[in-house]
Amino acid sequence: MNIKALLLITSAIFISACSPYIVSANPNHSASKSDENAEKIKNLFNEAHTTGVLVIQQGQTQQSYGNDLARASTEYVPASTFKMLNALIGLEHHKATTTAVFKWDGQKRLFPEWEKNMTLGDAMKASAIPVYQDLA
């Protein structure tokens, strides 16, 4: 295949990939499907004997599911979810390994358990924020 044809095909693929994706769906179908999903998710929370809400944002549209929908209006700090996500990103991008040791800098920490060298696993067990800050 010659270069011009290859460039033309590649350009067409990239341009079509950047085009807006327009979906025209039956609004009654999606509403009933959404209601069905909302009921299923609510039942899952009830069966687990807990309360909660799952918020899904797609573009400018936001939908809440669960048995405590008011909870979605309350802001919370990310807490340990930051640590898990940060660890996964660090592992995926080879910024850390399961055996790499994060050196303690000698500074006094909030908890004595944080005042030592740690692997990512040690940091996870101790919930050692300084290790995750170092990784970030």
TrEMBL record:
Would the keyword Signal turn up in this protein's UniProt record?
yes
Q: Name one GO molecular function term.
A: penicillin binding
Where does the signal peptide begin and end? Answer: 1-25
Q: Which residues form the Penicillin-binding protein transpeptidase domain?
A: 47-136
Task: Quote the Pfam families the UniProt record gives.
Answer: Transpeptidase
Keywords assigned = Signal
Protein transport among keywords? no
Protein name per the record: Penicillin binding transpeptidase domain protein
